[in-house]
Design a protein that fits this description.
2 copies of one chain form a homodimer. Chain A contains 9 helices and 15 strands. Chain A is α/β, with parallel strands linked by helices and about 280 residues long. The first copy, chain A, has 3 domains: about 90 residues, D-Maltodextrin-Binding Protein, domain 2; about 80 residues, D-Maltodextrin-Binding Protein, domain 2; about 80 residues, Alpha-Beta Plaits, CATH 3.30.70.260. In chain A, strands 1, 2, 3, 4, 5 and 11 form a 6-stranded mixed beta sheet that branches. In chain A, strand 13 and strand 14 form a beta hairpin. In chain A, helix 8 packs antiparallel against helix 9. The model of chain A has no long low-confidence stretch (mean pLDDT about 90). At the A-B interface, strand 4, strand 8, helix 8 and strand 13 of A face strand 4, strand 8, helix 8 and strand 13 of B.
Chain lengths: ~280, ~280
Amino acid sequence: MTKTVAFLGPEGTYTDEASYLYAPDADRIPFASLALVTSALETGQVDEAVVPIENSLGGTVIEIVDFLITSKKAQINGEILLPIDHCLITRPGVQLGDIRVVMSKQEALTQCRKFLARELRFAELIPTTSTALAVVELKEADDRTAAIGPRRSAELAGLPILAHGIQDRQDNVTRFAVLASNGSKPTGNDKTSIAFDFDRPDAPGLVYGALRPFADRGINLTKIESRPTGKGMGNYIFLLDFEGHVDEQHVGEAIAELKKFTSTFKVLGTYPIAQGLSVR
Amino acid sequence: MTKTVAFLGPEGTYTDEASYLYAPDADRIPFASLALVTSALETGQVDEAVVPIENSLGGTVIEIVDFLITSKKAQINGEILLPIDHCLITRPGVQLGDIRVVMSKQEALTQCRKFLARELRFAELIPTTSTALAVVELKEADDRTAAIGPRRSAELAGLPILAHGIQDRQDNVTRFAVLASNGSKPTGNDKTSIAFDFDRPDAPGLVYGALRPFADRGINLTKIESRPTGKGMGNYIFLLDFEGHVDEQHVGEAIAELKKFTSTFKVLGTYPIAQGLSVR
Protein backbone atom coordinates (compact mmCIF):
# COMPACT_ATOMS: atom_id res chain seq x y z
CA MET A 1 0.00 0.00 0.00
CA THR A 2 1.27 3.44 -0.86
CA LYS A 3 2.26 5.55 2.12
CA THR A 4 0.16 8.70 2.66
CA VAL A 5 1.97 11.88 3.67
CA ALA A 6 0.22 15.08 4.74
CA PHE A 7 1.88 18.45 4.18
CA LEU A 8 1.08 22.12 4.69
CA GLY A 9 -0.40 23.14 1.35
CA PRO A 10 -1.19 24.43 -1.13
CA GLU A 11 0.98 22.55 -3.62
CA GLY A 12 4.10 24.46 -4.55
CA THR A 13 5.12 25.63 -1.06
CA TYR A 14 8.53 24.87 0.41
CA THR A 15 6.86 22.26 2.61
CA ASP A 16 5.49 20.61 -0.54
CA GLU A 17 9.01 20.70 -1.99
CA ALA A 18 10.45 19.08 1.14
CA SER A 19 7.75 16.39 1.24
CA TYR A 20 8.27 15.68 -2.47
CA LEU A 21 12.03 15.27 -2.04
CA TYR A 22 11.44 13.11 1.04
CA ALA A 23 8.79 10.82 -0.45
CA PRO A 24 8.37 11.33 -4.22
CA ASP A 25 6.35 8.12 -4.62
CA ALA A 26 4.01 8.58 -1.64
CA ASP A 27 0.42 9.68 -1.83
CA ARG A 28 1.03 13.26 -0.74
CA ILE A 29 -1.98 15.25 0.50
CA PRO A 30 -2.00 19.06 1.00
CA PHE A 31 -3.83 20.52 4.01
CA ALA A 32 -4.75 24.17 4.41
CA SER A 33 -3.39 24.74 7.90
CA LEU A 34 -0.93 23.29 10.37
CA ALA A 35 -3.89 22.39 12.62
CA LEU A 36 -5.45 20.29 9.84
CA VAL A 37 -2.13 18.58 9.03
CA THR A 38 -1.59 17.56 12.62
CA SER A 39 -5.19 16.42 13.15
CA ALA A 40 -5.01 14.26 10.01
CA LEU A 41 -2.07 12.56 11.69
CA GLU A 42 -3.77 12.20 15.08
CA THR A 43 -6.89 10.64 13.56
CA GLY A 44 -4.88 8.20 11.47
CA GLN A 45 -6.09 9.68 8.18
CA VAL A 46 -2.45 9.81 7.01
CA ASP A 47 0.67 7.76 7.86
CA GLU A 48 3.08 10.67 8.14
CA ALA A 49 3.18 14.45 7.98
CA VAL A 50 5.91 16.84 6.82
CA VAL A 51 5.98 20.16 8.67
CA PRO A 52 8.51 22.98 9.02
CA ILE A 53 10.07 22.89 12.48
CA GLU A 54 13.01 25.32 12.41
CA ASN A 55 14.30 28.01 10.10
CA SER A 56 17.76 29.54 10.28
CA LEU A 57 16.19 33.02 10.08
CA GLY A 58 12.78 32.59 11.69
CA GLY A 59 13.82 30.11 14.40
CA THR A 60 11.67 27.34 15.90
CA VAL A 61 8.09 26.90 14.67
CA ILE A 62 6.46 26.89 18.07
CA GLU A 63 3.04 25.59 16.91
CA ILE A 64 4.68 22.27 15.98
CA VAL A 65 6.50 22.02 19.29
CA ASP A 66 3.27 22.80 21.17
CA PHE A 67 1.47 20.11 19.17
CA LEU A 68 4.15 17.50 19.89
CA ILE A 69 4.18 18.29 23.61
CA THR A 70 0.43 17.68 23.93
CA SER A 71 0.01 14.94 21.30
CA LYS A 72 -0.57 11.43 22.62
CA LYS A 73 0.58 9.73 19.40
CA ALA A 74 2.68 11.90 17.13
CA GLN A 75 6.45 12.08 17.30
CA ILE A 76 9.30 13.17 15.06
CA ASN A 77 10.68 10.17 13.21
CA GLY A 78 12.81 11.95 10.62
CA GLU A 79 14.16 15.35 9.59
CA ILE A 80 14.77 17.03 6.22
CA LEU A 81 17.08 20.00 5.59
CA LEU A 82 16.11 22.18 2.64
CA PRO A 83 17.93 25.32 1.50
CA ILE A 84 15.42 28.09 0.80
CA ASP A 85 15.89 29.31 -2.78
CA HIS A 86 13.53 32.16 -3.63
CA CYS A 87 12.76 32.45 -7.37
CA LEU A 88 11.37 35.41 -9.30
CA ILE A 89 8.59 33.89 -11.39
CA THR A 90 6.75 35.60 -14.24
CA ARG A 91 4.42 34.89 -17.12
CA PRO A 92 6.17 33.69 -20.31
CA GLY A 93 8.28 36.28 -22.17
CA VAL A 94 8.29 38.86 -19.37
CA GLN A 95 11.55 40.78 -18.78
CA LEU A 96 12.78 42.37 -15.56
CA GLY A 97 12.04 45.86 -16.95
CA ASP A 98 8.35 45.00 -17.46
CA ILE A 99 7.64 44.24 -13.80
CA ARG A 100 5.67 46.78 -11.76
CA VAL A 101 4.12 44.48 -9.12
CA VAL A 102 5.70 41.68 -7.08
CA MET A 103 3.50 39.31 -5.06
CA SER A 104 4.56 36.88 -2.35
CA LYS A 105 4.19 35.95 1.30
CA GLN A 106 5.36 38.97 3.36
CA GLU A 107 8.21 36.91 4.82
CA ALA A 108 9.58 36.11 1.35
CA LEU A 109 9.29 39.76 0.24
CA THR A 110 11.26 40.78 3.34
CA GLN A 111 13.90 38.11 2.73
CA CYS A 112 14.48 39.44 -0.81
CA ARG A 113 14.65 43.11 0.20
CA LYS A 114 18.09 43.80 -1.31
CA PHE A 115 17.29 42.24 -4.68
CA LEU A 116 13.97 44.09 -4.86
CA ALA A 117 15.60 47.42 -3.89
CA ARG A 118 18.32 46.96 -6.52
CA GLU A 119 16.41 45.48 -9.45
CA LEU A 120 12.76 46.38 -8.92
CA ARG A 121 12.91 49.61 -6.96
CA PHE A 122 9.63 50.97 -8.34
CA ALA A 123 7.62 47.77 -8.11
CA GLU A 124 4.68 47.63 -5.72
CA LEU A 125 5.00 44.75 -3.24
CA ILE A 126 1.76 42.85 -2.56
CA PRO A 127 1.60 40.32 0.31
CA THR A 128 -0.22 37.01 -0.25
CA THR A 129 -1.23 34.15 2.05
CA SER A 130 1.51 31.81 0.77
CA THR A 131 4.35 31.87 -1.75
CA ALA A 132 2.57 29.18 -3.76
CA LEU A 133 -0.64 31.22 -3.93
CA ALA A 134 1.26 34.20 -5.38
CA VAL A 135 2.41 31.97 -8.24
CA VAL A 136 -1.10 30.57 -8.82
CA GLU A 137 -2.46 34.13 -8.97
CA LEU A 138 0.12 35.00 -11.64
CA LYS A 139 -1.92 32.96 -14.09
CA GLU A 140 -4.78 35.45 -13.76
CA ALA A 141 -2.48 38.49 -13.68
CA ASP A 142 -0.96 40.58 -16.47
CA ASP A 143 2.65 40.81 -17.72
CA ARG A 144 3.49 43.63 -15.31
CA THR A 145 3.21 41.22 -12.37
CA ALA A 146 5.77 38.79 -10.91
CA ALA A 147 5.76 36.43 -7.93
CA ILE A 148 8.43 35.20 -5.54
CA GLY A 149 8.18 31.51 -4.72
CA PRO A 150 9.89 28.13 -4.65
CA ARG A 151 11.11 26.44 -7.82
CA ARG A 152 8.43 23.78 -7.42
CA SER A 153 5.60 26.32 -7.57
CA ALA A 154 6.91 27.57 -10.95
CA GLU A 155 7.19 24.01 -12.26
CA LEU A 156 3.66 23.13 -11.15
CA ALA A 157 2.28 26.30 -12.75
CA GLY A 158 4.36 25.84 -15.89
CA LEU A 159 5.79 29.36 -15.55
CA PRO A 160 9.37 30.54 -16.21
CA ILE A 161 11.89 31.48 -13.50
CA LEU A 162 13.49 34.85 -14.32
CA ALA A 163 15.99 34.77 -11.44
CA HIS A 164 16.69 32.44 -8.55
CA GLY A 165 18.59 32.64 -5.26
CA ILE A 166 17.32 36.22 -4.92
CA GLN A 167 17.14 36.12 -1.09
CA ASP A 168 19.49 38.50 0.80
CA ARG A 169 21.06 35.68 2.78
CA GLN A 170 22.26 32.67 0.85
CA ASP A 171 22.49 30.59 4.04
CA ASN A 172 18.74 30.34 4.69
CA VAL A 173 17.97 26.69 5.51
CA THR A 174 14.68 25.25 6.80
CA ARG A 175 14.50 22.09 8.84
CA PHE A 176 11.37 20.01 8.28
CA ALA A 177 10.23 17.25 10.59
CA VAL A 178 8.59 14.03 9.49
CA LEU A 179 5.88 13.23 12.06
CA ALA A 180 4.42 9.78 12.57
CA SER A 181 2.76 7.71 15.28
CA ASN A 182 5.58 5.18 15.39
CA GLY A 183 9.17 5.90 16.39
CA SER A 184 12.32 5.30 14.39
CA LYS A 185 14.77 2.44 15.09
CA PRO A 186 18.39 3.19 16.02
CA THR A 187 20.64 3.63 12.95
CA GLY A 188 23.88 4.52 14.74
CA ASN A 189 23.61 8.14 13.57
CA ASP A 190 20.58 9.48 15.40
CA LYS A 191 19.30 12.53 17.17
CA THR A 192 16.74 13.02 19.92
CA SER A 193 14.53 16.06 20.59
CA ILE A 194 13.13 16.65 24.08
CA ALA A 195 11.12 19.38 25.83
CA PHE A 196 10.98 20.04 29.57
CA ASP A 197 10.44 22.63 32.23
CA PHE A 198 11.32 23.04 35.89
CA ASP A 199 9.25 23.29 39.05
CA ARG A 200 11.22 26.33 40.19
CA PRO A 201 11.89 28.40 37.08
CA ASP A 202 14.01 31.06 38.75
CA ALA A 203 16.66 29.03 40.55
CA PRO A 204 20.21 29.82 39.41
CA GLY A 205 22.12 26.78 38.20
CA LEU A 206 19.04 24.74 37.23
CA VAL A 207 19.81 24.85 33.50
CA TYR A 208 23.46 24.10 34.21
CA GLY A 209 22.46 21.12 36.35
CA ALA A 210 20.09 19.85 33.66
CA LEU A 211 22.89 19.73 31.10
CA ARG A 212 25.26 17.82 33.36
CA PRO A 213 23.83 14.33 32.64
CA PHE A 214 24.61 14.92 28.96
CA ALA A 215 28.07 16.46 29.50
CA ASP A 216 29.03 13.61 31.86
CA ARG A 217 28.31 11.06 29.14
CA GLY A 218 29.94 12.97 26.28
CA ILE A 219 26.58 13.50 24.57
CA ASN A 220 26.74 16.33 22.03
CA LEU A 221 23.98 18.94 22.16
CA THR A 222 22.85 20.22 18.76
CA LYS A 223 20.23 22.68 19.97
CA ILE A 224 19.21 24.37 23.20
CA GLU A 225 16.46 26.92 23.52
CA SER A 226 14.51 28.39 26.41
CA ARG A 227 11.16 29.56 25.19
CA PRO A 228 8.90 31.88 27.16
CA THR A 229 5.46 30.30 27.44
CA GLY A 230 3.94 33.77 27.41
CA LYS A 231 2.69 33.79 30.99
CA GLY A 232 4.32 37.14 31.64
CA MET A 233 7.52 36.02 29.92
CA GLY A 234 8.55 34.50 33.25
CA ASN A 235 7.84 30.82 32.62
CA TYR A 236 10.02 28.88 30.27
CA ILE A 237 10.01 25.61 28.45
CA PHE A 238 13.37 24.19 27.34
CA LEU A 239 13.93 22.53 23.99
CA LEU A 240 16.98 20.31 23.64
CA ASP A 241 18.29 18.29 20.68
CA PHE A 242 21.21 15.95 21.19
CA GLU A 243 23.00 13.16 19.34
CA GLY A 244 21.98 9.60 20.14
CA HIS A 245 18.86 7.40 20.16
CA VAL A 246 16.61 6.94 23.22
CA ASP A 247 17.17 3.17 23.00
CA GLU A 248 20.91 3.61 23.54
CA GLN A 249 21.90 2.97 27.15
CA HIS A 250 23.88 6.18 27.81
CA VAL A 251 21.01 8.26 26.38
CA GLY A 252 18.46 6.47 28.53
CA GLU A 253 20.60 7.10 31.63
CA ALA A 254 21.06 10.79 30.82
CA ILE A 255 17.30 11.23 30.40
CA ALA A 256 16.54 9.38 33.64
CA GLU A 257 18.96 11.67 35.50
CA LEU A 258 17.57 14.82 33.85
CA LYS A 259 14.02 13.86 34.86
CA LYS A 260 14.98 14.25 38.53
CA PHE A 261 15.14 18.01 37.89
CA THR A 262 12.19 18.52 35.55
CA SER A 263 8.47 19.05 35.99
CA THR A 264 7.02 18.50 32.48
CA PHE A 265 9.16 16.16 30.36
CA LYS A 266 8.49 14.87 26.83
CA VAL A 267 10.51 13.09 24.16
CA LEU A 268 9.43 14.81 20.94
CA GLY A 269 11.17 12.23 18.79
CA THR A 270 14.28 10.14 18.15
CA TYR A 271 15.29 9.85 14.50
CA PRO A 272 18.17 9.60 12.01
CA ILE A 273 20.23 12.79 11.54
CA ALA A 274 19.32 14.47 8.23
CA GLN A 275 21.51 14.44 5.20
CA GLY A 276 20.96 17.85 3.56
CA LEU A 277 18.80 17.82 0.44
CA SER A 278 19.79 20.05 -2.44
CA VAL A 279 17.34 21.62 -4.83
CA ARG A 280 19.01 20.57 -8.10
CA MET B 1 16.19 69.12 24.08
CA THR B 2 13.50 66.57 23.33
CA LYS B 3 14.77 63.03 22.94
CA THR B 4 14.30 61.50 19.47
CA VAL B 5 13.18 57.87 19.27
CA ALA B 6 13.03 55.85 16.05
CA PHE B 7 10.55 53.00 15.69
CA LEU B 8 9.48 50.52 13.06
CA GLY B 9 6.56 52.25 11.39
CA PRO B 10 4.06 53.06 10.13
CA GLU B 11 2.27 54.69 13.04
CA GLY B 12 -0.25 52.41 14.70
CA THR B 13 1.88 49.25 14.80
CA TYR B 14 2.62 47.40 18.04
CA THR B 15 6.14 48.84 17.94
CA ASP B 16 4.61 52.34 17.78
CA GLU B 17 2.43 51.41 20.76
CA ALA B 18 5.47 50.20 22.73
CA SER B 19 7.52 53.30 21.86
CA TYR B 20 4.58 55.56 22.81
CA LEU B 21 4.15 53.86 26.18
CA TYR B 22 7.92 54.00 26.73
CA ALA B 23 8.43 57.66 25.76
CA PRO B 24 5.12 59.52 25.26
CA ASP B 25 6.82 62.93 25.27
CA ALA B 26 9.71 62.09 22.95
CA ASP B 27 9.97 63.09 19.33
CA ARG B 28 9.07 59.69 17.89
CA ILE B 29 9.95 59.02 14.26
CA PRO B 30 8.58 56.09 12.21
CA PHE B 31 10.92 54.30 9.76
CA ALA B 32 9.77 51.95 7.03
CA SER B 33 12.12 49.05 7.77
CA LEU B 34 14.26 47.59 10.51
CA ALA B 35 17.35 48.41 8.40
CA LEU B 36 16.39 52.11 8.31
CA VAL B 37 15.64 52.19 12.06
CA THR B 38 19.03 50.74 12.91
CA SER B 39 20.93 52.93 10.46
CA ALA B 40 19.23 56.07 11.88
CA LEU B 41 20.68 54.99 15.21
CA GLU B 42 24.15 54.21 13.84
CA THR B 43 24.42 57.59 12.09
CA GLY B 44 23.29 59.51 15.17
CA GLN B 45 20.10 60.77 13.46
CA VAL B 46 18.12 59.61 16.52
CA ASP B 47 18.99 59.15 20.21
CA GLU B 48 17.24 55.83 20.70
CA ALA B 49 15.30 53.19 18.78
CA VAL B 50 12.49 50.87 19.87
CA VAL B 51 12.48 47.50 18.09
CA PRO B 52 10.78 44.14 18.72
CA ILE B 53 13.37 41.62 19.97
CA GLU B 54 11.41 38.57 21.16
CA ASN B 55 7.85 37.33 20.92
CA SER B 56 6.38 34.53 23.01
CA LEU B 57 4.99 32.92 19.85
CA GLY B 58 7.44 33.96 17.13
CA GLY B 59 10.63 33.77 19.21
CA THR B 60 13.76 35.90 18.84
CA VAL B 61 13.84 38.56 16.09
CA ILE B 62 17.14 37.50 14.58
CA GLU B 63 17.67 40.63 12.44
CA ILE B 64 18.02 42.70 15.61
CA VAL B 65 20.46 40.26 17.17
CA ASP B 66 22.51 40.22 13.95
CA PHE B 67 22.55 44.01 13.94
CA LEU B 68 23.67 44.22 17.56
CA ILE B 69 26.46 41.67 17.04
CA THR B 70 27.98 43.67 14.18
CA SER B 71 27.16 47.21 15.37
CA LYS B 72 30.07 49.27 16.69
CA LYS B 73 27.84 51.64 18.67
CA ALA B 74 24.35 50.34 19.37
CA GLN B 75 23.44 48.36 22.47
CA ILE B 76 20.30 47.46 24.37
CA ASN B 77 19.78 49.94 27.21
CA GLY B 78 16.21 49.05 28.15
CA GLU B 79 13.39 46.59 27.52
CA ILE B 80 9.61 46.92 27.28
CA LEU B 81 7.07 44.08 27.68
CA LEU B 82 3.81 44.57 25.81
CA PRO B 83 0.89 42.13 25.72
CA ILE B 84 -0.34 41.72 22.15
CA ASP B 85 -4.06 42.56 22.04
CA HIS B 86 -5.51 42.11 18.56
CA CYS B 87 -8.60 44.27 17.91
CA LEU B 88 -11.26 43.87 15.24
CA ILE B 89 -11.60 47.36 13.77
CA THR B 90 -14.34 48.55 11.44
CA ARG B 91 -15.83 51.69 9.94
CA PRO B 92 -18.40 53.43 12.18
CA GLY B 93 -21.71 51.61 12.68
CA VAL B 94 -20.59 48.30 11.21
CA GLN B 95 -21.84 45.10 12.92
CA LEU B 96 -20.19 41.67 12.99
CA GLY B 97 -22.81 40.31 10.58
CA ASP B 98 -21.90 42.91 7.93
CA ILE B 99 -18.29 41.82 7.57
CA ARG B 100 -17.25 39.84 4.48
CA VAL B 101 -13.54 40.77 4.28
CA VAL B 102 -10.89 40.90 7.03
CA MET B 103 -7.51 42.51 6.33
CA SER B 104 -4.34 42.27 8.43
CA LYS B 105 -0.75 41.14 8.45
CA GLN B 106 -0.73 37.38 7.75
CA GLU B 107 0.75 36.70 11.20
CA ALA B 108 -2.15 38.48 12.93
CA LEU B 109 -4.74 36.65 10.79
CA THR B 110 -3.11 33.35 11.80
CA GLN B 111 -3.05 34.32 15.48
CA CYS B 112 -6.81 35.01 15.40
CA ARG B 113 -7.73 31.80 13.54
CA LYS B 114 -10.22 30.52 16.14
CA PHE B 115 -12.12 33.82 16.44
CA LEU B 116 -12.30 34.15 12.65
CA ALA B 117 -13.48 30.54 12.23
CA ARG B 118 -16.17 31.00 14.89
CA GLU B 119 -17.46 34.51 14.18
CA LEU B 120 -16.51 35.28 10.59
CA ARG B 121 -16.41 31.91 8.93
CA PHE B 122 -17.36 33.21 5.49
CA ALA B 123 -15.13 36.29 5.45
CA GLU B 124 -12.30 36.47 2.94
CA LEU B 125 -8.92 37.01 4.66
CA ILE B 126 -6.63 39.49 2.90
CA PRO B 127 -2.97 39.80 4.00
CA THR B 128 -1.41 43.28 4.22
CA THR B 129 2.14 44.53 4.81
CA SER B 130 1.46 45.58 8.42
CA THR B 131 -1.42 45.56 10.89
CA ALA B 132 -1.41 49.36 10.88
CA LEU B 133 -1.68 49.53 7.10
CA ALA B 134 -4.79 47.32 7.17
CA VAL B 135 -6.45 49.90 9.43
CA VAL B 136 -5.38 52.83 7.24
CA GLU B 137 -6.83 51.03 4.21
CA LEU B 138 -10.16 50.66 6.03
CA LYS B 139 -10.74 54.37 5.48
CA GLU B 140 -10.91 53.76 1.71
CA ALA B 141 -12.86 50.51 2.07
CA ASP B 142 -16.59 49.82 2.35
CA ASP B 143 -18.69 48.66 5.32
CA ARG B 144 -18.20 44.99 4.45
CA THR B 145 -14.52 45.23 5.37
CA ALA B 146 -12.79 44.97 8.76
CA ALA B 147 -9.16 45.04 9.89
CA ILE B 148 -7.24 43.37 12.72
CA GLY B 149 -4.75 45.64 14.42
CA PRO B 150 -3.53 47.19 17.67
CA ARG B 151 -5.72 49.49 19.72
CA ARG B 152 -3.45 52.39 18.85
CA SER B 153 -4.06 52.02 15.11
CA ALA B 154 -7.83 52.36 15.69
CA GLU B 155 -7.31 55.43 17.86
CA LEU B 156 -5.05 57.09 15.30
CA ALA B 157 -7.53 56.36 12.51
CA GLY B 158 -10.52 57.43 14.64
CA LEU B 159 -12.26 54.10 13.99
CA PRO B 160 -14.29 51.93 16.40
CA ILE B 161 -13.10 48.64 17.93
CA LEU B 162 -15.79 45.97 17.53
CA ALA B 163 -13.96 43.32 19.58
CA HIS B 164 -10.59 43.07 21.28
CA GLY B 165 -8.40 40.28 22.66
CA ILE B 166 -9.49 38.17 19.67
CA GLN B 167 -6.17 36.26 19.43
CA ASP B 168 -6.31 32.49 20.07
CA ARG B 169 -3.72 32.67 22.81
CA GLN B 170 -4.19 35.27 25.51
CA ASP B 171 -0.60 34.92 26.68
CA ASN B 172 1.05 36.50 23.62
CA VAL B 173 3.65 38.98 24.88
CA THR B 174 6.25 40.84 22.82
CA ARG B 175 9.51 42.06 24.27
CA PHE B 176 10.81 45.28 22.76
CA ALA B 177 14.38 46.54 23.17
CA VAL B 178 15.38 50.17 23.53
CA LEU B 179 18.60 50.61 21.57
CA ALA B 180 21.05 53.47 22.14
CA SER B 181 24.73 54.24 21.73
CA ASN B 182 25.29 54.64 25.46
CA GLY B 183 24.88 51.96 28.09
CA SER B 184 22.66 51.97 31.15
CA LYS B 185 24.00 52.47 34.70
CA PRO B 186 23.46 49.76 37.36
CA THR B 187 20.07 50.05 39.13
CA GLY B 188 20.33 46.94 41.32
CA ASN B 189 17.70 45.14 39.21
CA ASP B 190 19.40 44.63 35.87
CA LYS B 191 19.79 42.13 33.12
CA THR B 192 22.56 41.51 30.59
CA SER B 193 22.28 40.04 27.09
CA ILE B 194 25.31 38.42 25.46
CA ALA B 195 26.04 36.49 22.23
CA PHE B 196 28.92 34.11 21.64
CA ASP B 197 30.11 31.11 19.70
CA PHE B 198 32.78 28.46 20.10
CA ASP B 199 35.87 27.57 18.11
CA ARG B 200 34.90 23.91 18.11
CA PRO B 201 31.13 23.78 17.68
CA ASP B 202 30.76 20.02 18.00
CA ALA B 203 32.54 19.26 21.25
CA PRO B 204 30.26 17.66 23.88
CA GLY B 205 30.17 19.56 27.15
CA LEU B 206 31.10 22.96 25.68
CA VAL B 207 27.71 24.51 26.40
CA TYR B 208 27.70 22.96 29.86
CA GLY B 209 31.17 24.37 30.52
CA ALA B 210 30.11 27.80 29.29
CA LEU B 211 27.28 27.95 31.84
CA ARG B 212 29.48 26.99 34.76
CA PRO B 213 30.86 30.51 35.43
CA PHE B 214 27.25 31.67 35.92
CA ALA B 215 26.10 28.69 38.01
CA ASP B 216 29.18 28.99 40.24
CA ARG B 217 28.26 32.59 41.09
CA GLY B 218 24.54 31.99 41.55
CA ILE B 219 23.70 34.11 38.48
CA ASN B 220 20.19 33.39 37.23
CA LEU B 221 19.80 32.77 33.48
CA THR B 222 16.62 34.21 31.98
CA LYS B 223 17.16 33.03 28.40
CA ILE B 224 19.38 30.60 26.51
CA GLU B 225 19.17 29.92 22.82
CA SER B 226 21.43 28.26 20.29
CA ARG B 227 20.71 29.65 16.88
CA PRO B 228 21.86 28.02 13.66
CA THR B 229 23.75 30.61 11.60
CA GLY B 230 22.47 28.91 8.47
CA LYS B 231 25.79 27.55 7.24
CA GLY B 232 24.32 24.09 6.79
CA MET B 233 22.60 24.31 10.19
CA GLY B 234 25.88 23.10 11.73
CA ASN B 235 27.26 26.36 13.13
CA TYR B 236 25.61 27.94 16.09
CA ILE B 237 25.61 31.22 17.91
CA PHE B 238 24.47 31.25 21.53
CA LEU B 239 22.27 33.95 23.01
CA LEU B 240 22.23 34.28 26.79
CA ASP B 241 20.32 36.67 29.07
CA PHE B 242 21.10 36.68 32.77
CA GLU B 243 20.38 38.80 35.84
CA GLY B 244 22.98 41.37 36.82
CA HIS B 245 24.84 44.35 35.36
CA VAL B 246 28.22 44.09 33.59
CA ASP B 247 29.68 46.62 36.07
CA GLU B 248 28.95 44.27 39.00
CA GLN B 249 32.04 42.34 40.05
CA HIS B 250 30.58 38.82 40.00
CA VAL B 251 29.13 39.42 36.51
CA GLY B 252 32.46 40.75 35.22
CA GLU B 253 34.22 37.67 36.59
CA ALA B 254 31.70 35.27 35.03
CA ILE B 255 32.11 36.93 31.64
CA ALA B 256 35.91 36.85 31.86
CA GLU B 257 35.79 33.13 32.63
CA LEU B 258 33.28 32.43 29.84
CA LYS B 259 35.51 34.22 27.31
CA LYS B 260 38.19 31.54 27.78
CA PHE B 261 35.83 29.15 25.94
CA THR B 262 34.38 31.42 23.26
CA SER B 263 35.46 32.55 19.82
CA THR B 264 33.12 35.48 19.00
CA PHE B 265 31.87 37.26 22.14
CA LYS B 266 29.68 40.37 22.39
CA VAL B 267 27.72 42.11 25.14
CA LEU B 268 24.46 43.11 23.41
CA GLY B 269 23.41 45.29 26.33
CA THR B 270 23.04 45.64 30.10
CA TYR B 271 19.83 47.30 31.26
CA PRO B 272 17.09 47.48 33.91
CA ILE B 273 14.68 44.53 33.97
CA ALA B 274 11.33 45.53 32.43
CA GLN B 275 8.22 46.15 34.41
CA GLY B 276 5.37 44.88 32.21
CA LEU B 277 3.29 47.56 30.50
CA SER B 278 -0.42 47.08 30.25
CA VAL B 279 -2.52 48.43 27.45
CA ARG B 280 -5.26 50.12 29.51
